[in-house]
Amino acid sequence: MTLTTARMAWRNLWRNPRRTTLAVAAIGLSLTLVLVYDGVLRAYADWMRATMTGPLLGHVQAHAPEWRKDRAMDRTLRGAGAAVQAARRSPGVASASARVYAPALAALGEEGFAVLVLGLEPGPESRPTGLLAGAPEPPAGKRVLMGKALAENMGVRPGDVVALVGQGADGSLANDLFTVAGLVSTSVDFVNRQAVLMELPVAQELFAMPDEAHELVIHGKEGTAARALAAEIAALPELAGAEVLDWERIAPEMVALVRVVEVAWALVLVLVFVAAAAGVANTMLMSTFERTREIGMLLALGTRPARIVSLVVTEAVVLGAVGVLAGVVLGGGIVAIANRVGFDLQALTGRGPRELSFAGLRWSLVLYPRLAAVDVLRGAGAVLLTALLAAAWPASRAARLEPSKALRS
Fold this sequence. Notes:
By secondary structure, the chain is an alpha+beta fold.
């Protein structure tokens, strides 16, 4: 495509400003809708991953073999402290912590309630992705936290002393008195309804688990692939023989939901092809029909058919490019605004709850759409490719015109 051809294509497009404007508007609006939809879909995928890998799963988990099947107290990771330190030194790791899960009975008075004592490390778990994010204070010593729903069921208030009775990993009796320092409400249902959160060393002592843990939860740095991180952790000598899994293998049903995004994106892309093809094909076809005599004259003067094809194709590409520019500006602007203020799905529930409960998690109804460079490039590429394909028929028709017949039309 020469500069002269581009100038001619630009002038030809604006011979009929109304038709060209409508075609640009159709292409630009189609791409705008795609980019907005892409932004929402990417927000949905981010939302799914962040909720799944946040307080509950992490990006990678390590356990003793078979622990995930029966949750037996004696299936523990030995040398948990060294394993956690080794994981934290790995290049792709943002945080790593150990957890203890122990069933027990809790009582404020005479009535006992089945609870799950969760021993954890306050430091890492106080991060935005941890179970203690937003907690009034971290557990320390004999001061524990309790899930808000559990506390309401038991009639427990901050400052109350509860008795905990359970069984140690070695079969011994585990019992002691603890003060409830505060109540927590997390995105994980079982923590809210059943958990008593305790400092890890205290839980290890109570349940006879010196330097042992049931689970290591590891969060990777931004941009680190979970599967690659799992392989990196599994290779650590301190975790030799442990079961190390990334979150996608732990929760495959959630991965299937994320995959829906890819299918939905493909369907929307088809709509863009159709809209862009209709706009470009109609404009090019009408333009070539109107210029039949002009094209016939060019052919009669010796212009090669290839030059006519190049001119029509250039017009289509320029038309698509202008539509792409309009769509990127408008669509990108809308997504940028939505990313700043959030997209509140609560409005679709009639101003109902701000969260949903699903798969043992509480899901926020506020999404923050965003676009990646690949979204813009794919959308723009789809439009330009469609413009080329849509111009094929008008260009072929123009090139096959017989000069004598064209001049008489």
